Amino acid sequence: MGGFAEFELVEGDDGGNVLTLSGPYLVSTIGAIDQDLRALEGPISRIDLSAVSEIDTVGAWIATSLSNEHQAEITGASDRAERLIDALEGTRAEEEIAAPRLPVWKRVPQAMGDKVLGARHGVYGVVGFLGALLIACASLIRHPRRFRWLALVRQLELVGVSALPIIGLMSFLIGIVIAQQGAVQLAQFGAETLTVNLVGRITLRELGVLMTAIMVAGRSGSAFAAQIGTMRLTEEVDAMQTIGISPMEALVVPRILAAVLMMPLLGFYSAGVAIIGGAVVGQFMLGIPFWTFLTRIQDVVPLYDLWVGLIKAPVFGLIVALAGCYHGMKVKGNSEEVGLRTTMAVVTGIFAVIVIDAFFAVFFTEIGWG
Amino acid sequence: MAQDETGRDLGRHERYRGEYPIVVEGLKTAFGPQVVHQDLDLKVRRGEILGVVGGSGTGKSVLMRAIIGLQTPAEGEVCVFGRSIAGSDPQQDIGIRNRWGVLFQGGALFSTLTVGENVEVPLKQFYPDIEPELRHEIARYKVVLSGLPEEAVSKYPSELSGGMKKRAGLARALALDPELLFLDEPTAGLDPIGAAAFDHLTLELKETLGLTVFLITHDLDTLHEICDRVAVIADKKVIAVDTVPNLMELDHPWIQEYFNGPRGRAALTAQALDELRKHMDEPVAAHAVKALDKPPAGKA
Questions:
Q1: I want to staple A229 with a disulfide (CB 3.0 to 4.6 A). Which of A113, A129, A338, B69 is the partner?
Q2: Which ipTM value was assigned to this complex?
């Protein structure tokens, strides 16, 4: 008894060809022999299984397939083989394994059309979501006792406090880079001292808030989408609704509020740390003493730069959290959807932040806060 | 590699011939300070359907996870096909993993693959030399063999009902023609007709394919109808392993409550009725069935 499935086709004494199968006919041994068996040229009148040492449903399947194809009779089957062959009766199916798919030349235009038409739904969806959010906020203002303080505090911690180390490190490094690179360029005009203006104004006005928004989109926007999306898959959101809890009030409002409240604080913190980073470069590379750098900031940065940053921050927070929650609530079907929606939440969040930032830049310059 | 009773590695075309494919000795499992099992012993005989019962939270699923290597035991030894599972080299486990099939409680189908593709996953993983043509054929007949309609092959799990998901999960568990089948509450959440059909299917598969089945269940009908022996888990160990009639003789409060409670008796009556119906032509039996079908008024 070998460890390999083998076969032999010989002319039998009654005139017809006899196919003798021998050895183990199992799922583990069939791969090596299946193609050869399929390639056999008929006619075969009899398939002899008496030399088969082991058989499972795959072996039985091969035997019945051959027997059907060549109208051959199966002989010499052991009890077990007999039972398996009987069990497989009527299991022949033709259905494709893969889900039905259109050919590429139909699929691509169709996907494109769906996207274009879907864009409108997407806009409706976001506007509708914003509307539902406002209604939820209004009803919470009328019934303040329904507000979930605990959830809000928890989200404030997740969005704000636990983001402090990474945002601090990132901002410190950005401050160093701006100061160092700026100093190199400004030195060409003999204006290294203006590095203070550069670092102070750019971080307070633009980069502090913008980089923070991107970081919050990556940390919290994605978390909102993934968490709410998973809750949708496990029907937790549906369960809430049946109990009479509005998912908008319980899940979305605390998260969005947390992002809106935390973004100005994080943005200001980020700008502050970046300035410290710049001051460190000043101390060691430019010969500007650390404290002088910091006091100079007060003189050269106009107060409205701070206001520009602080006004933009909650708007960015709203956008990032809205994208996260919206995509989370849109999840349906399977786990792949959670991944797709999380990606979309981060990408649309960051994109929208940058677009709105451009509008703000023009707007604030026009009103004289240049 | 799986080993026979003498410790020799089994070739991949050889079936396990030892008496006990699963041997659990002195098992202790714990989550932190919470001990789930303590000194648990269990032997599963080859070719039997072993039912595992126990109250909620007694660790039936944890025991299954310990046997299939998903939960590392704190103490004790779990041997499957003669070889210890705990802490073994995953590369070596291959000889064991392709000899068992597992049906998880919720089906645990891969949601991004169709049912047919789900069944193909283990085939691709263990036997990449099987040509796609044959692999598709195998996937199709396994799905039909598990009692699903042919059209289900190309459907995604999210398009299936709960009962169909279970059957699709069974088809995947059977993909490699395993010798050992683990079923975690296969009939939970099924309607009585579906549950009875699933029981019947399990029994039929066991008999035709020569399976050993480790079956976790709460379903008393399942226990009466198809289980050869039943293991009862209570007080962190297996307190008894025996046939249902023998278990009912035992003097343990939980066992008494379980089998002789209202539901236990109902299941028993149903089974007795079935037996009687098989002998309907005998006048005495027919009379008994009539009497049992219509309980006297006032004694509902």
A1: A338
A2: 0.75
